[in-house]
User: Which sequence fits this backbone?
């Protein structure tokens, strides 16, 4: 707001003007600003579950003891619902609460409530709500932005890139890094890194395509996007204590296992893997997979890649808050890595590594599910657990909506 506008509002009756910066005060150099607040503060993320306490129409379908499939669907629904309301405009929520005339949100709330309270089972109700929450008007690649990739990874306040580029919809991340809003990130095109748009397209597809319990979660696609771009920018991927030389130019679908059995390894596919490509498990419901393809769930890994050094890296992503669920992931991934190592020469592989990303399990609880150890699971360092703030850091700018990706609220 300009000084004049604030002065005018201050003269109105029953109006209190509270002025703050929503964008960085670029006109005031940091070394000259003695009276301008430049400390970035992270605003709370819109919480659809909290909103449902005041608006019962937004209550997400749930059962007393939700299954794993239900939790995955709830995570997808929470992501879509929050984005839908943010794009439509949160002001309409306030108008609806004040019982003011609302021709924008009211029809959606009515349809959502009917689907959430239908006579169908919980999974069917969740899938119906997810369909209703499709966000069709998210555009990808509309605006060329030279610092798009840097914004996706997160920038420090005062960085030279930010000083030289005005960014709309600036967002402060939980770790005080700066990024752009998710809507803006999706709309950017980075001319230096084509993989940026490939990841943005996949993320946008999560918002508008039909989803089922077998489909990948938004968290998996978020990690695929950020990890691919991070490798393109940094030419390396640091996953916990492990570091891999990688520079991905594309994101493609693939399967290391031909069936849902982790013994059915497709070594021919592994032989043909490219070191400039990040692979996402090809399974039902993934962006880019047609509805006519009958595919089993891909076991043990959601994201994987092969380095030029012959290192095969399997990444398993979990949105669970429960240490027991993470322990199970670790055990299964460790077993898969050991089995692959026995025959890795068949795929031209020199080493096999595994990483579990668990952003909603704290480091303290991560040690509990890792027999008191932090980080490395195997003595030879081939399998690693990255959890808590370390895993959230790898989400880069998408950490702004990290809480929307949480699969459950159970603690044990």
Assistant:
């Amino acid at each position: 707001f300009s000084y004049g506008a604030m002065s005018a509002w201050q003269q109105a009756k029953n109006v209190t003007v509270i002025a703050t910066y929503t964008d960085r005060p670029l006109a005031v150099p940091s070394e000259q600003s003695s009276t301008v607040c430049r400390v970035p503060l992270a605003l709370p993320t819109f919480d659809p579950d909290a909103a449902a306490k005041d608006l019962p129409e937004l209550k997400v379908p749930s059962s007393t003891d939700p299954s794993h499939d239900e939790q995955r669907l709830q995570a997808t629904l929470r992501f879509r619902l929050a984005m839908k309301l943010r794009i439509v405009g949160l002001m309409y929520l306030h108008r609806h609460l004040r019982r003011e005339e609302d021709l924008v949100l009211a029809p959606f709330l009515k349809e959502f409530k009917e689907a959430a309270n239908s006579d169908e089972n919980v999974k069917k109700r969740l899938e119906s709500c997810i369909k209703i929450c499709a966000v069709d008007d998210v555009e990808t690649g509309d605006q060329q932005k030279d610092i798009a990739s840097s914004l996706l990874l997160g920038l420090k306040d005062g960085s030279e890139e930010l000083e030289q580029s005005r960014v709309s919809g600036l967002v402060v991340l939980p770790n005080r890094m700066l990024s752009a809003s998710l809507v803006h990130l999706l709309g950017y095109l980075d001319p230096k890194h084509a993989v940026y748009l490939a990841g943005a397209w996949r993320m946008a597809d999560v918002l508008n395509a039909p989803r089922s319990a077998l489909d990948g979660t938004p968290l998996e696609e978020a990690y695929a996007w950020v990890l691919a771009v991070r490798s393109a920018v940094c030419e390396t991927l640091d996953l916990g204590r492990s570091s891999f030389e990688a520079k991905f130019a594309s994101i493609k679908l693939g399967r290391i296992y031909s069936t849902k059995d982790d013994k059915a390894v497709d070594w021919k596919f592994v032989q043909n893997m490219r070191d400039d490509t990040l692979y996402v498990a090809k399974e039902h419901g993934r962006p880019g997979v047609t509805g006519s393809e009958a595919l089993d769930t891909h076991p043990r890994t959601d994201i994987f890649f092969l380095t030029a050094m012959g290192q095969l890296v399997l990444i398993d992503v979990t949105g669970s808050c429960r240490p027991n669920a993470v322990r199970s992931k670790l055990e299964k991934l460790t077993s898969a890595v050991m089995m692959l190592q026995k025959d890795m020469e068949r795929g031209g592989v020199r080493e096999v590594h595994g990483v579990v990303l668990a952003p909603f399990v704290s480091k303290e609880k991560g040690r509990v599910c890792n027999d008191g150890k932090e980080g490395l699971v195997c003595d030879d360092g081939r399998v690693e657990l990255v959890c808590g703030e370390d895993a959230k850091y790898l989400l880069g700018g998408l950490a702004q909506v990290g809480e929307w990706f949480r699969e459950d609220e159970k603690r044990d």
